[in-house]
């Protein structure tokens, strides 16, 4: 390997001077750039390192949003960018980030130079992967901080990060905890899917992040549907900005959805949506599709039930309540699959680039047109073909279509072929009846959907009072509609804020008035304590209670499964029923004393039953009259002894016969073993040898007869004969036939076998000496 050359001071100065001149030329080209018809990335005033990274990642041609926004961003202006889904907005802000840090000669000691905020973890990971691809020739460090990862691992490395990508909650957590995070020199702030980052869910979190950022910076906002609220822009210090994007986003003369997207809608009752969805999947088994629901509980229920119904296509599910590892694996598998159905929530509706999605199906009506645009944008990306389908109830049909028409979106109506439609209500009812867990999931899905309709702000589209709750519950396989406790809108908003608030902020809110935490020791809680503290784990409605014939009634106030009606279990005498009240002290002592109880009941005895089914004690004693009727004592004694002697003689004959059979079996096995060994040793004997004399005739039946002749002798002689016969088989065959191992040949040579033991070797030595 070549030795590393050490540059002198003059050489380093020359290199630095050339880089300064090159960067100055880039600044000049950027300010003078005016080419609205640029087609390729090399037509833009970009550095060589960025151009090589784009070429290696196969990014060559510019899209409309990239051609319009990148020159404006390179000039240092704040940008409010809007473009259709799948138009390449990620590169539109990543390229200016790399160029900005390169031209500022950024190093790892300068801290974070660019902060990119994404509303979802999946989108943040996608941005990070694209940055790694195009930044291979740049010397900047990039980091990804999202929920579900190890905070300590991120905090140890965040001090050396130049480009930080993350979700709002985790970024705010690092701003509060990580000492090494330095954002005092921040150059750029990027908000991808800015309208989602600025809405109510992330409002407080984003305000807390922005308050810690330096006021002098460049800000880039990108989304497919852009919010231009003055209050939102003022929160980000976005006062002097330039709006870039397609004419559709500026003038509203064209639809905001891709032109290659074929959009359809059908009108279906709420109770028939699952039947329609299952039938749609069965007729599109060769497609790659995404099915959107409004809540994670609906996604979980539909995924588990459809898995058991087996529509014939691979099923996946993705929602925000899954572990981060499961979400990442699902994204990877779905991206690589060709024929698959992904059941998901809006967590993947924004920015995620799935390749070759054929259909986007929206089972639940989106909350607004922006959500509709983001959902259908998962298909027909980068000019490719795609299709979408939305299911609208008769109450949602007209109002929502009017809102789509106001944004230049007019989907075509489809008619459902009744021959292709299949009802799965009986199967769902059977599944939920057999599996209480599925029933619980169905009840949770029902409640989550009803609550999602209740909290919608657009009451013209979402009519809560007209929901067919009973029919909808039956379509899910439930015996009836569960009871739902609905809260006011103020409580719902507070619960949303509490859900999206970082845990560290919640911990700070629990501090006392002096800002100090109460130092109270925590009680140890095991997994069993947590298990028994859970409530309502299997049922939600009174129908399940009726089926199980349980007498417990659910408390409508706190929702407990079993309510404790009485805490004092010390029974008093007046509370006892008359049948079990004690009558006297003597009766109490008798009931508690085992000895006194047996005195009245008698000792327990074991009984046997005769052939007639009559019970008798195991041992029955005769009286004197019955005994004398059978004769005197001596005659009965002699009769008993005679009978027992006959039984013993019969047993002896059976034992001798069994012993004989065992000896014959043993002899047969020994003879078989001897024959096998003689066959193996045939090579020891020559053709001139005399036949070997064996013990026995070699005929198994003859040997058995010879041995059986001595069966009538006395027992001692029999055992002696057996020992003598067994001793014949204990001698190894090799020693029995030792006379045949050595033979004199005509030529005077002595053939011997190879000695195997020390005794054989000594014997061979003595014979050789004597010879």
Automatic annotation (TrEMBL):
It comes from the Eukaryota. Residues 679-691, 702-730, 748-762 have a biased composition (Acidic residues). One of its GO terms (cellular component) is nucleolus. It holds the Pfam family DEAD. Residues 652-771 are annotated as: Disordered. Signal peptide: none annotated. Residues 70-244 form the Helicase ATP-binding domain. Coiled coil: none annotated. It catalyses: ATP + H2O = ADP + phosphate + H(+). Interacts with the U3 and U14 snoRNAs. Associates with pre-ribosomal complexes. Belongs to the DEAD box helicase family. DDX10/DBP4 subfamily. This is ATP-dependent RNA helicase. The lineage of its organism: Eukaryota, Fungi, Dikarya, Ascomycota, Saccharomycotina.
